[in-house]
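Reopening this one. Same input as before:
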Amino acid sequence: MNDYPIDMNVKPDVQAFFDEATNTISYIVKDPTSNACAIVDSVMDIDYAAGRITYDHADELIRQVKAQGLVLEWIIETHVHADHLSAAPYIQQKLGGKIGIGDKIMVVQNTFGKVFNEGTEFQRDGSQFDALFKDGDTYMVGNMRAFAMYTPGHTPACMVHVMGNAAFAGDTLFMPDGGSARADFPGGDAGILYDSIQKVLSLPDETSLFMCHDYGPNGRDIKWETTVGEEKTHNIHVGGGRTKEEFVKFRTERDATLAMPKLIIPSLQVNMRAGEVPTDKDGNPMLKVPVNAL
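Same output, byte for byte:
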């Protein structure tokens, strides 16, 4: 058993919003005893070929928060996503709330600040975010206690956020028939990912787990909710007692066959800035494409 302060008696109201373009699930998580809520892993829409950004997905989250009379207190990023752009500052402008991410964001900013040849004006101290969480840090959503678990491996800055009896897994785990996320991005490590997954699986079996992505393996309908117990027993990559050595061998071999995510170039530039689009010297929104750097 772990030492994290999970309260299995508190069951938040969780609403999921699936983004078909990126297979991302965003969440509105409401404290059951107040009107306070958090948003987890929002999406900003981009037509990369056209260089056009829109906000349909984020606008739906905003509409739901307003329609239900909720007060947004937190906008949580489980990690610096490589497959979709965050809408955190857009949502914050409309609804308020604090933008939070793991404090290892600074490692990611240093790594990709070099990849994208960012100048000294790009701060690499996490100051673009309102809160930087360390492992075990707690925060409140209304009357509901939440906490952050440090779960590196997919990236150096991944965290699973637990609110009441619900855990938001980011890319640390997928649904049982989806397995786990890749570990071959800069700063990723399959062995560390295995250890992080075991940390998540040390939560009570009844803990609800909510995924950041689902791809409907074998043609099934999209799903996003499972439990720790289901993952421990049935996850095709780590369940049923698979050893660390077996996992590392499998994950390393599988990752070597995977293409880069289609939106990795814009996603990293935007998400390491807490969702802000970078600008050129004249202040115009502008993205870079580094050549042979990833």
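So the earlier flakiness isn't reproducible anymore. For the record, The mean pLDDT is 95.
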